[in-house]
Known about the structure:
Layout lengths: L1 H12 L6 H10 L4 H21 L5 H18 L13 E7 L7 H12 L2 E5 L6 H11 L3 E5 L7 H12 L5 E5 L5 H6 L4 E3 L2 H12 L1
Parallel strand pairs: 1-2, 1-3, 3-4, 4-5
Helix pairs in contact: 1-2, 1-3, 1-4, 2-4, 3-4, 4-5, 5-9, 6-7
Amino acid sequence: MEDAVTRLKNAVINYEMETIADLAKKALAEGVDPLVAIEKGLAEGIKVVGERFGKGEIYLPELVMGAEAMKAALAVLEPAVPSGKHRASAGLVVIGTVQDDIHEIGKNLVATMLSANGFEVVDLGVNVASTEFTKKVEELKPKIVAMSALMTTTMPRMAEVIGPIKKKSIPIKALIGGAPVTDVYAREIGAEGYSGDASSAVDVAKKLVG
């Protein structure tokens, strides 16, 4: 049993994007609990990859490959989780790239890392209008709304999301990030959290819900 789970963990750490789905199928065939495979295998693996990225031991392409490997295995394991059984959730996060911005690598990485660390993630995609963010927040009542902007021209869109949400007194924390975004800017527009990269985004999210 242990072996199949360890194999999955190592497959994420070693970016085995081509073979990991087969390993996941094999684990299921061997009778491994899909939840255990996800939590003790994939999630542990991506945590190692995230830590290495945080220490500067690996770079963005490797982090992306680790995330892609994890996704490939999740596509096999998640449908096998028995209905009624769920991973313990650290909280619900609604995430998206703001309007007029179509950058998604950073946002996708943050979504994957949050998911690996026990958050439920609803990804709205890219070029998301502020009204769409507000609608989803009202509908799902997440603990965090997370936004990404990769251009100085789209950064103000973040304020257009946070403003209306605060006005409605919805109890939610905002987490923002992206190349031009700073901690100072986050405070200026009323966001409780800021992160410069995917691995630290998880730490910030944990603090926000903690």
